[in-house]
Amino acid sequence: MASETISAQAMNGGDGQFSYARNSEFQGRGVETAKGLINQAISEELDIKQVISSSKIFVVADLGCSVGPNTFYAVQNIIDSVKLKCSEKELEFQVYFNDLVSNDFNTLFRSLPSDRQYYASGAPGSFHKRLFPKASLHFVHSSYGLQLLSSTPEELTDKNSPAYNKGRIYYGRSRNEVVAAYSGEFSKETESFLDARAQEIVSGGLMALIVPCLPDGLPPGECAVVAYADLLGDCLMDMAKLGLLDEAQVDSFNLPSYFPIRQELKTLLKRNPYFTIERFEPLALSAQRELAINIPTVVSHLRAVLEGLVKKHFGNDIIEDLFFRFSNKIEESSMCSPSSIYKPPVENVIVLKRTSI
Fold this sequence. Notes:
By secondary structure, the protein is of the alpha/beta class. The chain contains 11 helices and 7 strands. It has a 7-stranded mixed sheet, with helices on both faces.
């Protein structure tokens, strides 16, 4: 079988039980916690006179917006902060909501706040590529998106590669070569992301990112979100052994995401000459731990993120059985117990400023 890659899929749309709109409280807590740091960066680092042209339009883009309230909260906070900073009464705001073409933009735009203070437009496409004209954006926001890869490394499904990831769908319990393949893909795609934004953001403009990272010194397999993905892979292999699906399908399926360590990410950001790092701070999210010990919450949140990928590769028929098995597997593992050794990712708020070169 030829090497295969798994392409990214949008989160579950709509507003049903397993939609992202109803299962993104983890991410929402992070966006809310990052508010103060982003406000401070706008107050201290944004030179309104430098970035605003005579048109008096301030343009914001939220990359990887998905659906639901988190994106609206984030952009409104940015707009409120800019208004507080700027005395220009005639300043107008344009917001672009970006996500993959498979995103449920219909639900997104149906749920736009009726009292919004901005003009809203969609910008479909991968944020690893150019999306906007040169020097057209003043502020870019992206939360919980940079760890998502546009596709998985080809080596993971190449039987002749040392990174062949047979029987697994992620890297938590895999060989070092598998981890290195994921790391290499993340490095390449992060560079593409930064190069694209360097073209689109005006000199002096800002970009705020919320990026979950592996805790320093923690093996990938002991990071809760990575370990959960490994358990989902175990469920798929169990189903393959029972003849409910083809084992070759599991061998060709790997999740397109990677959680870097903090220094790994910082090195990539420093390498790009078009941005300076103005903030790089971990978020204090004690409430995340409370959410993470509730098995139904964990399963529904992960299902909202991963169901589209699973359906595309394995079909719709296995979904209910798979996530039922997944819930049982988590309970058997004691991963959600208060004394669990598994640690959540460390979420970091990062503010970058576009240089003048």
